[in-house]
Design brief:
4% of the residues lie in helices and 47% in strands. It is mainly beta. The protein has a 20-stranded parallel sheet that branches. It is elongated and about 105 Å long.
Length: 709
């Protein structure tokens, strides 16, 4: 019930406009019930005022004063309070989400009066009063919705009413992006958009924001295009994109609109195809002719790197033309083509789109390959020019052809990525960057791999990249530093090769499998380090060629299973520590030359027919476990030069001749190794093995002992 009102005789129940403050200040009046009452719309009531109760002090004042007050009320009601009319207005609105549900407890305020904040009620309604007359920027915030800033013109002394203000869910903009009506005809329109992952979406459309019609997709995709048909000419249509996630939550894009053109156009071409890339810079486009007899000509449009559409055929193509060649494509760009049929009056059909195509070749500006654009097809080389960076994001899939169509680069027959600038391929353990064969099964020489050359642009970096079928190498770094980590290289002619690099970052945590020649090749590098790598089924595990006396190779915590040689080459200074090298039918360590003063082989386990062979020089060989598991090995340590050195604290077992051209010194032993064994074979020593106390420090010998080098 509304509160009882008692007003002096001769007054009205309505407080005079602009005089509410005067009434609140009148000493004989107070409001019944405390705070100012409001209407259901949130606006303050202009009634509810009454005289004090008879028992109050003012009721006991003289009647003359009460009469004077009544007279004041009558005068005020007749002539107003005499104050200037305020230049303010108010805003009344209702908040809804994209699905038409009310939005409760959203905060609403004006940028010009931020101290006055209100919240929407349970019916979604809000009311902002005392807004400055004129343009107001109204801010609407809510934890579950996108922050909105809307502009309203507020007339003085009036209330602007907005029936509904639609808010968008906070994550929808990230999930659905680049929504637009690409081509609009008189009765058709093509809507395109992108999603953050492959999804099946729907488009709602209609002449109002109630939409009314829906068209959906059949297959999930990240790049989407749907054609709306049966539209009315010269009509404004609203549309939005939606999808429902695995939690049954429906997400919507913003509401957008387009207007259809006048007149009827012909039926669009049923399909547009890419007929191939016959040469560098050329793209062949073909299409099916329109089924409409009214189609008398065609136009070809092109979008470069998902940019705006540009008309490529200034002259109309005749009704029987079904192919066209783009001769202006640029390397490193993505293209999409659209074909429009026109009638005799020039009325266009909707545009039919081709798939997107990537033009390989010379990159003269930075290029970023994203997972959403995968897979990328390489029919020819990518040549990264000096000063240019090629960036490949996690999860990208690159499919490589077996023939170099454009015959570019260092190898005219095979596709390669030739880097004269800089390349950054940084995948992750969960989303590695992958290379695969475009045309089915691949050979070891399917493509030319990644070749990094000097260019002064900065150090290249590859991490969590999977490579296959490369010849001569999967990655070849020549004359420049490059960081290679967590690479997975398989079924190739060669693995990685470094040439003439002064201080390359360590080759870390890489795996090599089924490599015909050398998994790791190093030549002429001042300092090179191999850490935590694994090689299986390679012809040679590590090949090294020292060119200068100060060159140093270090290999630690690395496992190699090779066919011919585990480690071989010429060494000036080297350290091999805590490594496992197995080469059952070949040579574990083959020193073609070790003439420097600092060549160390320490705490390694070697399983081979010939454990260690030294042709020149005298490396320090200590604390190693050298074994032939079948017991029919040829030599444990073989020295073919004239030095006849003595090697201490090594355990040699299972060889016909333990020492050839050399001898064992202090701590030399020939115990059975007592490996844990199993399948896969575990080369840890069993707890009771005597070799756990056999190195020069009285501790464990071999791979799992502690090296202090």
């Amino acid at each position: 019930m509304s509160p009882e009102r008692h007003l002096p005789t001769g007054t009205t129940s309505e407080v005079p406009p602009g005089c509410q403050e005067g009434w609140r200040e009148a000493p004989a009046l107070r409001h019944a019930g405390g705070p100012t009452p409001t209407t259901s719309e949130g606006s303050p009531r202009r009634h509810g005022w009454r005289l004090a109760s008879p028992g109050s002090p003012i009721a006991r004042r003289p009647a003359a004063r009460l009469a004077a007050l009544a007279l004041l009320i009558v005068i005020s009601a007749s002539v107003g309070c005499g104050l200037r009319q305020p230049q303010t207005g108010s805003l009344h609105g209702r908040l809804l989400d994209a699905a038409g549900n009310v939005v409760v407890y959203a905060q609403v305020y004006s940028l010009f009066a931020e101290e006055e904040k209100v919240w929407s009620g349970t019916d979604g309604v809000f009311y902002l009063s005392e807004l400055p007359a004129g343009r107001n920027q109204i801010v609407i915030t809510h934890a579950s919705y996108t922050r909105e800033v809307r502009e309203f013109v507020i007339p003085a002394n009036e209330t602007v009413r907005v029936e509904e203000i639609r808010l968008n869910q906070g994550g929808a903009v990230k999930f659905i992006s680049q929504v637009r009506a690409d081509t609009v005809g008189s009765s058709t329109a093509v809507v395109t958009w992108k999603t953050y992952k492959p999804l099946v979406c729907e488009v709602e459309y209609g002449p109002t924001q109630s939409y009314g019609q829906t068209v959906g997709e059949h297959d999930p995709a990240e790049d989407h295009a749907l054609t709306l048909t049966g539209l009315t000419p010269e009509t404004l249509y609203h549309f939005r994109v939606r999808f429902t996630d695995s939690s049954s939550v429906t997400w919507y894009s913003y509401d957008l609109s387009f207007k259809t053109s006048a007149g009827d156009g012909p039926t669009p071409p049923p399909a547009v195809r890419l007929a191939g890339l016959p040469a560098y810079g050329l793209v062949d486009v073909a299409w099916d002719l329109s089924t409409s007899t009214s189609a008398v000509s065609y136009q070809v449009w092109r979008s470069d790197n998902d940019g705006p559409w540009a008309l490529m055929t200034t002259d109309l193509l005749d009704r029987d033309t079904a192919a066209w060649q783009d001769q202006t494509a640029v390397g490193g760009h993505f293209y999409r083509y659209g074909v429009v049929a026109r009638n005799v009056l020039g009325g266009p059909s909707a545009m039919t789109l081709s798939p997107r195509v990537f033009m390989p070749g010379f990159l003269t500006q930075d290029l970023r390959l994203t997972a959403s654009g995968s897979p990328y097809i390489l029919v020819s080389d990518l040549i990264v020019a000096v000063g240019v960076t090629l960036t490949v994001e996690p999860g990208v899939d690159i499919r490589v052809a077996s023939v170099d169509t454009f015959r570019l680069g260092e190898d005219p027959d095979r596709v390669e990525i030739l880097v004269q600038g800089r390349v950054s391929m940084l995948g992750t353990a969960d989303a590695p960057i992958g290379f695969s064969a475009l045309d089915g099964a691949a050979s070891r020489a399917h493509w030319g791999g990644i070749r990094i050359r000097p260019g002064g642009t900065g150090n290249s970096e590859l991490s969590y990249v999977r490579l296959f079928g490369c010849s001569p190498y999967a990655v070849h770094v020549d004359g420049v530093a490059a960081s290679l980590q967590n690479l997975a290289i398989r079924y190739t002619q060669g693995g990685v090769r470094f040439d003439d690099t002064r201080n390359a970052p360590a080759l870390t945590a890489c795996t090599f499998d089924d490599v015909a020649s050398a998994a790791i090749s190093v030549r002429g590098c001042r300092r090179f380090s191999i850490e935590g790598c694994t090689v299986t089924d390679a012809g040679v595990g590590v090949w090294h060629e020292a060119q200068e006396a100060e060159e140093r190779l270090t290999m630690r915590e690395t496992h190699i299973h090779a066919i011919s040689r585990g480690v071989t080459g010429r060494f000036s200074r080297s350290v091999f520590a805590n490594c496992l090298v197995t080469c059952p039918d070949g040579i574990g360590f083959d020193y073609l030359a070790a003439d420097g003063a600092e060549n160390d082989l320490d705490h390694c386990t070697v399983v081979a027919d010939i454990g260690i062979r030294i042709a020149s020089g005298t490396p320090r060989v200590k604390n190693n476990l050298v074994v032939n598991l079948d017991g029919d090995g040829t030599y444990g340590i073989q020295v073919t030069g004239p030095a006849g050195p003595i090697f201490s604290y090594n355990n040699l077992s299972g060889f016909a001749t333990a020492y050839q051209g050399c001898s064992g010194g202090a701590g030399a032993a020939s115990f059975a190794p007592d490996f844990v064994g199993g399948n896969p074979y575990d080369y840890h020593l069993q707890p009771a093995s005597a070799l756990r106390l056999a190195d020069q420090y009285g501790l464990e010998i071999g791979r799992y002992g502690k090296s202090y080098l």
